[in-house]
Amino acid sequence: MVHAPTLTPSTEESGPQPVRKARLRRRRGEELTKVLFVAPAALAMLALFGYPVVKNLLMSVQDYTLRTFFTGQAPWVGLRNYTTVVKDHLFSQAMVNTALFTIGSIAFQFGIGLALALFFRRRFPLGGVLRSLLLLPWLLPLIVSSATWRSILEQDSGILNRTLMGLGIVNDPVPWLNSPSVALIAVIGVNIWIGIPFNVTLLYSGLAEIPVELYEAGQLDGATGWRGFRYITWPNLRAVASVLLVLGVVYTIKVLDIILGLTGGGPANATQTLATQSYQRSFVDFKFGQGAALSNILIAVSLVFAILYLRTTRRAVDE
Amino acid sequence: MIGNRIAAALAGVTALSLALAGCGDSGNKSSSSGQSVTSLSILDYYNNDPDKALVQKGLDSCASKLGITIKRETVPGDTLIAKVLQQASSKTLPDVLMLDNPDVQQIAATGALAPLNDLGLNADGVIQGMVDATSYQGKLYGLAPVTNTIALFYNKTMLADAGVQPPKTWDELKAAAKKLTKPGRYGMAFNANATYEGSWQFLPAMWTNGGDETDLKSPQVAEALQLWVDLVKSGSASKSVINWTQGDVKDQFVAGKAAMMVNGPWQIPALAKAPNVKWDVVTFPLNKPDQTPVAPLGGEAWTVPLNKDQAKQQKAADFVKCLNSDENELAWAKARFTLPTKTALLDQYAQEVPSMKAFAEQVKTARARTGKLGDKWPDAAKVIYQAIQLALTGKASAQDAFKQASG
After folding, report:
1. At what angle are helices A183-208 and A142-152 packed, to 10 degrees?
2. Which of A57, A113, A172, B140 is the most exposed place for a label (fewest CB within 10 A)?
3. What pairs with residue B74 in β-bridges?
4. What is d(CA B225, CA B190) in angstroms, rounded to the nearest whole number?
5. At what angle do helices B398-405 and B219-233 cross, to 10 degrees?
6. ipTM of predicted complex
7. % residues pLDDT > 90 (chain A)
8. Domain boundaries, given as residue ranges, for chain B
9. How is residue A50 annotated by DSSP?
C-alpha cells in the first residue's frame, strides 16, 4: 500500500522512456545511414572536383616546374605567377581572342540552331533522318573534326578554296588558316559547325514543349508567322534559351582541342586564347604555376556565367 | 537491417578511400638489392613500326648479352615527358629511359638522372655536338647510339627537267626554287610552324650564317629569316608553311607538289614507298661560299634514372653501354636510316649507305640545340618560332621580328 503510489508513477514513467529512446536511436540511425549514403558521392566529389581545384589554386601561387615532379619542392611565390601572365605581351590579345571566339561562336551557333530547330518543327518527309544527320558533328571526335577541317581549309589544295574558286566567288585562294586576320574567323567557323547540333537538340525539345493550343488560339487572334514567333514561341522558349546560352559560354570559353588541332594558336599568335596559352605554359614550357594561374583566371570567368546559369535555372523552376 | 546497411555503406567508403590511397605512393622501387639483377624496365617513344620492332631487336640482343630480360613500354612521342613526370612524382621511373636529346639537360637539371661517368661510361669518340647535348654541368647523363639531322632533299626528275643544279648557296636556292615553281607545284617546302619543330628547321640557315641562339637579335639571324621570307614572298614556297609539320612537308614532296624540301633521313622509308619519286640529298646551302654548313643534331639518348638499388642502376648503365657499342650503332643506323654518333664509324657508314652521305657529312659539324643554352634552350626556341611566324605573316620585318618576339 505504501509502495503503491510511488510505484505507479515510476511504472508510468518507465513505460514511454524506452520507446522514446528507441525512437531517438532509430532516428539517429537513420541520420547516420543518410550520411553514409551521401558519403561516397561526397568523397568522390571532393576527390574528383575539390582536390583539383584546390591543387590548381595552390599551384598558381607556387613556382611549380619540371623539378617539382622529381623533388616535390615548389617554392611559394605569392601572386607572382599572376602578374607574370597578365603582364605578358600576349595576354591582352588572348583575352580579346577568347571574347571574340566565345561571342562569335555562341551568336551563330544559337542563331543557326534556332533556325534549324524551327525548320525541323514542320513535318516533312525525311525530316527525322535529316535531323539525326545533323548530330554528326557532335559524334565525331574533336581531333578528327579538326584534322578534317584543316585539310578542307588548306590554302592551295583545300576543297573549300577549290570550290569557291571554281564557282567564281573568289579570285585568289583565301588564306583561311595562314593569315593572322582570317585564321580566327576560320577557327570560329569550325567551332560553330561543331556547336550547332547541341543547340538544335535543346531548342528543338524546347519547341516541342510549347502546347499546340497556344498556336491555335494565336491563329484566331492573327498571330501567325513572324508574330507567332514573336509573341508565342519566343516567350515560351526563353527559359531554355537562357540556359543554353549560359551553358554555351561555359563550354566555349575553354575550348582547346579544336584550336590546337587547327592552328596551334598561330599563325603569329592570331588564335591564342586563354585556354591555349594556359596549355602552352603548362605542357610546352613546363611552367605549371603560370599555367595554373591562367586557368584560374579562366575558371573565374566561367564561374560568373555558372552563377548566372544557376540563377536562371532557379528562376525557371520557381516559375 | 540498419546494421547491415551501415556495414555496407562503411564498406563502400573504405573501399573508395583504399582505392584512392592506392593511387598514391604505392610504387616505391622494391629495393631488393640482391646480387643478381634479372630484369630491367625500359621506356621509349618508338611506338610505331618499323622503328618499334627495329629498336626491339637491338634491345633484345643487349638483354641476352647481359643475361637479363627486359620489360619495355612505348608511348607516343608527344606524351613521353608527361609520362616521365607522372612516373617521377610516383617514384616509378623505369630503369632505362630514352629521352629526345634536347630534353636530356632539362631532365638532368631536375636531379632525376644518374651521372653515367660514375657508372663506368664515357663518351669517347662521340661527335662533340652529341656530347654537349647529353652532358649537364660537366657530367654525362645519356648516350645516343644514333643521331640524325636535316638537309635539303630534291626531286631529281624535276631539277633535271628544269635544267637546275642542286643549289649550293642561298642565291642559287632562291633562283632554283623560283624556276621550279609552276602551277600546282612549289619549288621549295619547309616547316615554319609555331612549335619547336619550326625552330629546328630554321637552325641550318641560322647557324650556317653564323647566327647564334645567345644573340637572336643579330643581323646574321635576321638574314637567315629573310631567306625564309624571300622564299614565301616570291611564291616559291607555300604560305601554308607556317602550319606544316615535317610530315606535311614530306607529303607535299611525295605528292610532287614541292621540288625541294628541308627534312631528315627518318622520312626515307616513306619516300621509298613512292618509287616514282626519284630524289637525292645535299647539305643545306650556304649564304656565302666560305661558310660551313651547320645543322642541328637530332636523335634520342638513353639515360639511367637514379635508383636506390645500386646493382640495378649499374646493370642499367651496362645496358646503355651495350646499346652504344659500335656494333649496335651501325646496326641501328643502317636499319633505321639514322647515323652512328661515333666519328670513327661515320665514313665507313657513308660508304655502305650512299643515300645517307649528305647527312653523314652534315652530322660531323652539327650542333646540339642545348649545347650553349642548356635547359634554357626552350625559351630561345620559342622566340625563334614566334619570330618566324611574325615575319612570314608580314606582321613584322625580318629585322624586327626577333625583337618583337622576345617581347
Report:
1. 130
2. A172
3. B44
4. 13
5. 120
6. 0.81
7. 47
8. 39-148+298-364, 151-295+373-405
9. I
* pLDDT attached to residue A315: 67
C-alpha cell, A199: 543547340
CB atoms within 10 A of CB A233: 20
Hey, which residues does B155 pair with through a beta bridge? Answer: B279
Instruction: Indicate whether A155 pLDDT > 80.
Output: yes
Q: For residue B60, is pLDDT > 70?
A: yes
CATH class of the B151-295+373-405 domain in this structure: alpha beta
Q: Are A155 and B240 in contact (CB under 8 A)?
A: yes
Q: Is B17 on the interface with A (CB under 8 A)?
A: yes
Answer for the pair B296, B367: CB distance below 8 angstroms, yes or no. yes
Q: Sorting pLDDT into bands at 50, 70 and 90, what band is A292?
A: very high
B28 touches chain A (CB under 8 A): no
Cis peptide before B50 (omega within 30 of 0): yes
What is residue B40's three-state secondary structure? Answer: strand
CA distance A81 to chain B (A): 17
- Report the alpha-carbon distance of residue B128 to residue B294 in Å, rounded: 13
Rg for chain A, CA atoms, rounded:
29
What architecture does CATH give domain B39-148+298-364?
3-Layer(aba) Sandwich (3.40)
Residue range A118-128: average pLDDT? 85
Mutate to test the interface with A, among B243, B306, B384 (most CBs of A within 10 A): B243
Alpha carbon distance B188, B201 (integer Å): 13
Burial of A123 from C-beta contacts in 10 A (0-12 / 13-18 / 19+): exposed
Q: Check: CB of residue B143 under 8 Å from CB of residue B116.
A: yes
In the predicted structure, residue A2 carries a pLDDT above the cut 80: no
* Inter-chain touch B89–A269, beta carbons under 8 Å: no
Confidence of residue B32 (pLDDT cuts 50, 70, 90): very low
C-alpha cell recorded at residue B210: 653564323
